Amino acid sequence: MAQPPRRLASLFRCLAGVALAYGAVASAQAAGPKPARLGLCAACHGETGMAQIPGAPNLAGQKLDYLREALKQYRDGRRNVPLMRAAIGPMSDADLDELVRWYSAQTPSVPTQGNP
Ligand code: HEC
């Protein structure tokens, strides 16, 4: 005979849990490991790309090409922002690439203040 419905339901709940956990692991992998230089940016942009200080933009989920281009513009002075120029000054292209990949792969969190 078939199993009592209640046991079946808990089996399904369990399977759904496994699927969710697997999804979380898969999306964490998409972002890659934390970049070694992340600490240099996190004070202002947060580890997950949500701004920590007034005036700093959120970077989470922003387009990869856009972030890359923005950093190039700070570096060559087309965007003349001393703060950002100083932050990326000592870094190699490979370091910057790792950082923009990381930020681009983050999911923006829901803002805690302000109007939508
Ligand atoms: C001291 C604070 C500070 C630090 C540290 C810092 N940033 Fe910024 N960042 C800013 C501010 C402020 C802006 C906005 C500048 C402007 O008006 O163009 C900005 C802008 C940016 C932008 C452009 C975003 C956009 O939407 O145009 C990128 C990309 C960025 N930062 C990446 C980084 C990365 C990567 C690091 C680490 C290497 C970093 N920042 C470190 C404060 C900071």
UniProtKB/TrEMBL annotation:
It comes from the Bacteria. Residues 1-30 form the signal peptide. Keywords: Electron transport, Heme, Iron, Metal-binding, Signal, Transport. The keyword Nucleotidyltransferase does not apply. It holds the Pfam family Cytochrome_CBB3. InterPro entries: Cyt_c-like_dom, Cyt_c-like_dom_sf, Cytochrome_c_Oxidase_Subunit. Residues 27-107 form the Cytochrome c domain. PANTHER family: CBB3-TYPE CYTOCHROME C OXIDASE SUBUNIT FIXP, CYTOCHROME C4. This is C-type cytochrome. It comes from Dyella kyungheensis.
